[in-house]
């Protein structure tokens, strides 16, 4: 059993409480998912559980952690900087447990994760692996070390659909406890049997958490039904209050007018009766005020982000060729090997294209080449959102400074309004980008795309850092974008809801599926 008690986390810079008095017990068989909007403290809490020193630069934390005899296995959202320059071989041999593995055990692990057994001994650096290969390497090393509790921060990021299905089997088959964060709604729906929901309500001035011991889809439906029922009751009570208050008001006016209209001779008789009646009315009014204190509250929930991408000027004529890409071969970024042959990809008008494939097959390399070609074109306006946000973001700048290119006061005000619609607080707008969550960084880049006026978007895993609550908004936004979208994704809901065509990249090239 694993337990944390009375955890409170406060952001040092703006003194905002992101989690208050949170307690949780995990038992064998628990598969608990943490959900909530970007920046609500999910990853921060997980880091605090692993080691409070991981967040001490920006978080003041308090509470208790009781591991008992449990051993934690932690997958961070991003590969730690200290590991990026290590070779794959060095990364595995750093674990004292790796040398104890038999060739048979390593062969099985490699097969399960869809890599060759030689993968463990590669001299390639960790930072040059594809995003999915990095996740696989980290997960394999975690499993080699035989943990009992798995703490997984975005295990679905960057991995191919086959490995996503492996991850589902791993989580569902884990005999101990799993606590994970994921933005992949399909993965959550297929695995989680407990939901931990973190919210920031009242314009992020109040934090709230809910722990529900039900599967995700059931939680969402029950929550929606409960909110609708509470809202109906609250609205009904307020309608009744309005009618009642109007009756009291008219009664007070009537008695008051009668008192004002009585003659001097009537004051002792009728006047006393009217005064007594007015006293009763006032007494009734006070009783109603006390009852109103117990009225059903209107339900509070964290508002979904509001965002629109593109306008009528972003539309592309249906007959215009956006891309006519042909290549005899696709080489790895370092030129060391050929990844695919005979590639052809043609995009016309406002088509939405998705590209899938196994990790390491060259999807990001292909998308980079396509981006280089389209960004140089003058007859279209293309923008590129890479998988690694840090390639475009200046981590020391604030979101406002990064997005502002004019220094104009009105421009900065407009940027703040846009960031507010994406649920940034005024304080968060002044935080360095490096202190923001992955989802908040993604929002900055999406806002940059929106403000650019682009009519062609090249997106590498566009939904990878958005919460299950923001996911539907992002998918709808991209589906309704009037221009063309060329994307790499393993998000099964994104592929089915947004993409008009989906291609699989393999050694034989691109094949529509």
Name its key features.
six-stranded mixed beta sheet, 22% strand, Rossmann fold, alpha/beta, 17 strands, globular, 513 residues, 3 domains
Describe this structure in words.
This protein has 513 residues and is of the alpha/beta class. It folds into three domains: 2-223, Rossmann fold (3-Layer(aba) Sandwich); 224-292; 312-512, Rossmann fold. Helices cover 38% and strands 22% of the residues. It has helices at residues 42-50, 81-84, 88-93, 103-112, 131-144, 161-173, 185-191, 216-261, 267-292, 363-375, 399-403, 409-421, 438-452, 471-480, 492-497; strands at residues 2-11, 17-26, 31-35, 59-66, 72-75, 149-153, 177-181, 194-201, 206-212, 321-331, 338-348, 352-356, 382-385, 456-460, 484-488, 501-506, 509-512. The strands form four sheets. The chain has a six-stranded mixed beta sheet, sandwiched between helices. Strands 13-14-15-12-16-17 form a six-stranded mixed beta sheet, sandwiched between helices. The chain has a three-stranded antiparallel beta sheet with strand order 2-1-4, with helices on one face. Helix 8 (216-261) packs antiparallel against helix 9. 38% of the residues are buried.
